[in-house]
Every structure is written in structure tokens, then in C-alpha cells.
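Hello, quick one for you while I still have it in my head. A protein chain has come my way and I'm curious about its shape. Can you walk me through what the C-alpha cells say about the fold? No rush at all, and the record is pasted right below.
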Amino acid sequence: MEQMGKVLVVNQEKCTGCRLCELVCAVKHDGISNPARSRIRVMKWEAEGLYIPMSCQQCQDAPCMNVCPVKAISRDEDLARVMVDYDKCIGCRSCVAVCPFGAMSFNVIDRKVFKCDLCDGDPQCVRFCDIKAVDYMSADEVSIAKKRDAAARVSRASKEGAALMAQL
């Protein structure tokens, strides 16, 4: 199965805030059901009913990789992901400080940084999200879907504008 060029895609409009993705992630990676150990975090704004799953964006020019003083963070081109080499990592947490998405975390018990590793190409958060608020798709598919959505919005706005003009 071809994995190259796939990205984790979040549709916050679908997310119900159940946080199952967090639990599944923590169990997969650490064997415990503790959301604090998850590589994906659901940000919640209860009053607005807004829930947004956040995880590593696997940046092409990753700030975490660039700031690492011992080069413990590198890119795995096969799965288009950014990986941490724990044999090299000194736990300085520079990567935590520079991540613009807050996706790099530090585990005070293990004294290690951690981030999404895409579950080696089979993200469990995607597998267990029944409503598909989190998906794993090729970057091309994501681009086409966004273009389609934008075109639909432009078309709708154009029709609404024409209707308003007709009322004048």
C-alpha cells in the first residue's frame, strides 16, 4: 500500500469531542489509557461546541528538526513524517518550545519528548474515529477536496450576491 505523500487531515466540523482518538493513541504507544500520553490532543471550547483534534503536521521544513542541537529529529521520506531518535535525544525540549502547533510534548515520567509518528503508516486515531473527523489521505486528495469546497462556496456566494442584486 502506497503511503508516500499521505497526511493526517482533521475536519473539526465533524469532531464531537469524544476524545477516543486520544485514548487509542495513548494505548497504542504507551499501553495505558491516559490522554496526557496521547500524540493527538482534542482542543475543546465547550461554550462554542468546538472541538479540534491537533497533532504533528509533519512539517516539510520542521522547526523541531531545525532546532535540535544533537540532530535527534529527522525526516522519514517513506512515510513523509518527522521522527525522533531517542538514542540521540538529550531531552532539552527545544523542539517543544519551537513547534508552532504545540504538537511536540514532553513526558516527565519517561523524560522524553514525543509526537505523532503516524503509527508507522496506520494511524489508529483514524481507524477508531467512527465519524471520520480524523482521516489519513494523500495530499493530492486533500488538495482536490479543498478546491471543490472552495469552488462550491464561491458558487454559493455568487448566487446569493445575484439574488441580493435582483432584490434592489
The helical segments are 20-30, 63-67, 94-98, 124-128, 139-167. The beta strands are 6-10, 41-45, 50-54, 73-76, 81-84, 105-107, 112-114, 134-138.
